[in-house]
Structures are given as structure tokens and as C-alpha cells.
Write a sequence for this structure.
């Protein structure tokens, strides 16, 4: 039987720092996907995911063991990424380049090594043109809509989890998912191909991960 996240957190808090690796292995890929949909940049995403786990590790004592660890982790990742995107937008208004300011210290970086992340094989088989169309369509979504869409249609998360992550009411989270689907459907409709199901091909996640 798989050890629960709460049990692993309890082990870490009891002094077994190596146990945190279990949480990293268990959740890094899903966190990567959510952050990547917000940034559209693999290098930025890798750094932000690293920061997410470092912040989670440092804040572990504040985690309520009765809560859902993955939802708590999503919230940290989304908030950090939103801060990053806001800072990047401000910086890009005055300069052509940007950088992340608050880098983790060397000691903590050595403690948490993330699994190698990269495009899944399903994304690699997409044509360059289709990748560009999908990226362009996702770019039309607000950060909240990207998170909501990714969590709902790629991670299979509940509306309740999405609302907790985005700090929204359930109705607002549901509307974010709906708006994202409508925007993406409108942009990708011409590329669905004859006889393609509008939901089966595009929103199953296989063509969008």
C-alpha cells in the first residue's frame, strides 16, 4: 500500500529529511505541467518548479496534515509563477531580457534534485505547426484560465481543488475552466480535421500535454 502524502510529511517533520524526495518524485511532473502552461518556457518552468519544492520544504511545518498536499503544493506553484509572470511583464516593459531574482541558496538546491522534465512523447509527435497553434491558443488564456484548464482537463483535478488552488469560489473556478475551453475550441476548431470529435481529440489531454 502506498504511503500517503500526509504520512510522508509527518516523516519529514520527524527528522527524516530524505523522505521529502518521495513527495518530489510523486508530484513534480504534474506541477511541471501546470507551471509550463503558464510560462510556455521549459527553462523558466524548471526553475519555478525547483523553487516551488524548496518553498514547500521550508514551509512544511505550516502544512495541515488533514489537508490535501497536492492542492497545497499547487497553490505554492501557482502563486510563485504568477509573481514571476508579473515581474517579467514589468521588467520586459523596460528591457529586452529578464532574470529570476530570488534564486534558492546552494545548500537547499543540493538537497532537492528534481527528476528530469521535458516534453512527453505525445507532444514530440505533434507537428511544429500544430505546436505553434496550440501555444498560440494557450497564450490567449489568462494565467488563471491556464491553471484551471490544465488542472481540470490534463490532471483530472476537481473543481474544488482548482478553486482552492486559485483561491476562488467554486463557481468562479468552474467559469475559468469553461472560458478556457471556449477560447481554445474557437482557436483550434479549424485544425480539428473532418470527423474529429470536438471533445475527444482536443480535450482528452493527449494532444495538449
Amino acid at each position: 500500500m502506498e504511503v500517503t502524502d500526509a504520512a510522508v510529511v509527518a516523516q519529514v517533520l520527524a527528522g527524516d529529511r530524505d523522505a521529502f524526495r518521495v513527495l518530489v518524485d510523486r508530484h513534480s511532473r504534474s506541477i511541471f505541467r501546470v507551471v509550463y502552461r503558464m510560462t510556455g518556457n521549459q527553462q523558466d518552468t524548471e526553475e519555478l518548479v525547483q523553487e516551488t519544492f524548496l518553498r514547500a520544504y521550508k514551509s512544511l511545518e505550516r502544512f495541515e496534515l488533514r489537508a490535501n498536499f497536492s492542492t497545497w503544493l499547487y497553490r505554492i506553484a501557482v502563486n510563485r509563477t504568477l509573481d514571476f509572470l508579473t515581474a517579467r511583464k514589468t521588467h520586459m516593459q523596460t528591457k529586452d531580457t529578464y532574470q529570476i531574482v530570488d534564486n534558492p541558496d546552494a545548500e537547499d538546491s543540493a538537497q532537492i534534485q528534481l527528476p528530469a522534465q521535458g516534453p512527453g512523447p505525445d507532444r514530440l509527435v505533434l507537428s511544429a505547426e500544430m505546436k505553434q497553434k496550440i501555444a498560440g491558443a494557450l497564450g490567449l488564456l489568462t494565467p488563471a484560465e491556464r491553471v484551471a484548464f490544465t488542472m481540470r482537463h490534463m490532471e483530472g483535478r476537481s473543481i474544488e481543488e482548482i478553486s482552492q488552488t486559485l483561491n476562488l469560489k467554486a463557481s468562479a473556478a468552474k467559469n475559468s475552466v469553461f472560458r478556457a475551453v471556449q477560447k481554445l475550441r474557437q482557436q483550434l476548431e479549424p485544425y480539428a480535421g473532418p470527423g474529429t470529435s470536438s471533445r475527444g481529440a482536443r480535450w482528452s489531454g493527449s494532444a495538449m500535454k
Summary: The longest helix spans residues 69-92.
